[in-house]
Acetylornithine aminotransferase
Amino acid sequence: MISHVLPTYNRAPLAFERGEGSWAIATDGTRYLDLGAGIAVNVLGHANPDLVAALTEQAGRIWHVSNLYQIPEQEKLADLLVKKTFADTVFFTNSGTEAAELAIKMVRKFWDHQGDPERIEILTFDGAFHGRSTGAIAAAGSDKMVKGFGPLMPGFRQLPWGDIEALKAVITDRTAAVLLEPIQGEGGIRPLDDAELREIRALCDKTGTLLVLDEVQCGMGRTGRLFAHEYAGIAPDIMMVAKGIGGGFPLGAVLATEQAAAGMVAGTHGSTYGGNPLACAVGARVMEIVADDTFLAEVNRKAALFRQKLEGLIAAHPNLFESVRGQGLMLGLKCKSAPADLVRAGYAQHILTVPAADDTLRLLPPLNISDEEIAEAVARLDKAAESLDA
Ligand SMILES: Cc1ncc(COP(=O)(O)O)c(C=O)c1O
């Protein structure tokens, strides 16, 4: 008999009833060190007092109003994002997938608005993940996600990841947009070089193509900069954000330049819940804490410490691990085989990690994880690896 919850996930036999910072506490009281953070969501850990205060204070005032009215909490968060990024304007969503949908719509509307509605081809890359809507699966194009859901939305073409020559061969002044994650998350913590990202930006500029970045997983301080593309010194035209921006409260956003958003006039897009006061009150507090140079410097310091310890782990288990990759606290341990056993062995050591494609184990802790917790995490990973060595 089918479970009452639609069985689209292979769930681990673990349930959590509380969280404290970097720890998730299971229903039997066991404390798990959480290096998944809800898959890069709980940027400030579980039950962060600042976020609990922001949420409860807002909950006592007003939860929800329609976007038919002004929403001061939404305007505050939009102001914070515009001030700290390339963007001139923001639309709030409830998830990364909804942000992907709007980003795709915005590209199409941009070219329609330019009088060129046939310019619809969006170039994407293999290994990409942009969500599970019909548009987002067509964009990513992986067999696993699209099988059985056809016919797919037209207008996408996937290229080999990071293959600038392949991009050069197909991008023209008929290309609508290039869409990519600066560091692929689900694809296995696969970063693009800064030089490659600059080259992609230059190719877009040369052909008049829009550059759309998906920073749903790698954004919001995860890499040690507020957004990952900042390392390359470039700016997109449109950017998708979600996950970390709500610190655990469902919230996403599409950021855009005034020019890219030119077609998105009243009536062209909407959302009942997107940008509601509860979500935006929390999002604004997350932004105030994360978009701060001192906070981001600490993310980088901790990342260096974590990486150094992971190099030791790799050296101790050369039969299991190949290398560590990623940026900031978006780290991937490239394994010699699929990391499912390692994730399970981690459960036995009371540590939570997340598998990804390309035989990669993802380590995405809260950005305020302590030095002691980093040492503890590597010690537990070492024990988990030892149990597999044995
Ligand atoms: C890069 C990227 N884009 C989009 C999404 C979809 O976000 P959501 O699950 O919030 O719809 C994800 C989720 O993992 C993601 O990692």
About this structure: The pocket of pyridoxal-5'-phosphate is lined by residues 39, 95-97, 100, 129-131, 181, 185-186, 214, 216-217, 242 (CB under 6 Å). The longest strand covers residues 321-327. DSSP finds twelve helices and 17 strands in the chain.
